[in-house]
Amino acid sequence: MIAGVDLAGWRELAGTVRRASWEAQATISVSAAGPEITVRPMLLGPSRVARPFTVAGDPVALLLSALAADTAATVAISLTRQGALPTKINIRGYAGQAPKMGVHLDVAGLITPTQLAAAADHVRRYSVILRTLAEPTPVRLLLVTPDGSQPVHLAGPLPDSPSAGAGGAPLGSPLAGVGGVPGDSPSAHPAGPPLPDAAAEAHAVWQQGARSTVTAADRAIVIDRPKQLFGTDRGPSPEECLLAALAAETLARTGGEVHVSARQDLRGGLGFDGAPVGLRDILVQCLDPQAPIPAPGPVLELLRQPTDVSIEIENRRTPDAP
Predict the structure, then answer these.
(1) How many CB atoms neighbour CB 36 within 10 A?
(2) In what ranges is there compositional bias, type Low complexity (predicted)?
(3) Which run of H or of E encompasses 269?
């Protein structure tokens, strides 16, 4: 193990999921009924991994924290695989208008510019959070009311009124919850809220392996991964923080109780051809909501449309670096 990165463990996992792809399927979920979002047990293939963590904070800050921590972990894995020895990985994640987001990498150690450039490319290709943001991610909303469930598909424009489903179809009709209905035009719907300005930032200080301490909006949080994914299980994962951001944002608009879940194919991050890297099948369930259809917030906007995430590199090599 180098710098807390278990390369042998990752190779063993890659061999396992190559033989049995169902073991690579992970289900992640969180629940919110108040300021604190509870991380629910993670399913890794046939295993149930209980993770007794809670998350709180501004939704955009949580999203940026997830991006910064995942970038730090991905950089650490890439550099270690290349034989580099990082001594410091600081990541600044930020959001601006457009939609546009970015990460600034401040890395020190026995690292060449070529190795660092390769690590940045690895982030672009295999960071789960970055890939989730960079590609349009369908999000399905399920309003669970005393009268029954009402699905609303949020991948495209929101409906104009609470009586319509995606594409203007009445809720409960065969078209409700299905995007791409004829006559559905983005120009027919109001634009979403403005995205956060450049003052929205998260700063991650890498500790080891998958663990970082991230500060955003005057809150500090340890973000890690479970031991089954070669973390130290000191905090929620970046993926869980992303879902927590969506849960917090939705709860502020609907009230009641919110559950958010998603699936992840671990093969994507391991570089298997054809396997998706980003989260998929994101489902938001609102129990007894006070508002029939929530207005879209910045987190939902960043998820449901392709978001440009730029990567800036700063390399502070030690004097004896090659």
Answers:
(1) 14
(2) 155-164
(3) helix 266-269
Cβ distance 98 to 195 under 8 Å?
yes
pLDDT in tens, 237-265: 999 999 999 999 999 988 889 999 999 99
**Residue 271: other Cβ atoms inside 10 A:** 12
Q: Are 231 and 85 in contact (CB under 8 A)?
A: no
Prediction pTM value: 0.83
For residue 206, the domain's CATH number is 3.30.300.20
Number of domains in the chain: 1
322 belongs to a structural domain: no
- Strand 47-49 versus strand 100-110 pairing type: unpaired
Q: What contacts 148, CB < 8 A, 6 or more positions away? A: 172
The three-class DSSP label of residue 196 is coil
Q: Which residues pair with 294 in a beta bridge?
A: none
Residue 19 C-beta-side C-alpha neighbours within 13 Å: 5
Cα–Cα–Cα angle for 244, 270, 81, nearest 5°? 110
CA distance 50 to 54: 12
Strand partners, 150: 143
CB atoms closer than 10 angstroms to residue 35: 11
Classify 23 as helix, strand or coil.
helix
Domain membership of residue 288 (yes or no) is yes
**Residue-range definition of the domain harbouring residue 18:** 7-317
> What single-letter DSSP state applies at residue 171?
T
Say how far residue 233 (Cα) sits from the centre of its chain.
Answer: 18
Q: What is the pLDDT of residues 71-123, one digit of tens each?
A: 999 999 999 989 998 999 999 999 876 567 899 999 999 899 999 999 999 99
In a domain, 94, yes or no: yes
Would you say residue 2 lies in a domain? no
